[in-house]
Design goal:
The protein has 34 residues and is mostly helical. It is built from one helix and no strands. The termini are far apart.
Amino acid sequence: MPSIFDVFAVVTSSAVAEEWRMSEAESGRPESSQ
């Protein structure tokens, strides 16, 4: 069973990745358009 810290790390990293993708899209970089 994963600990609360493992779950928190996964949620945080996925949220950060989503934020990064959003800021990349806003900056007008067309390299990752999927």
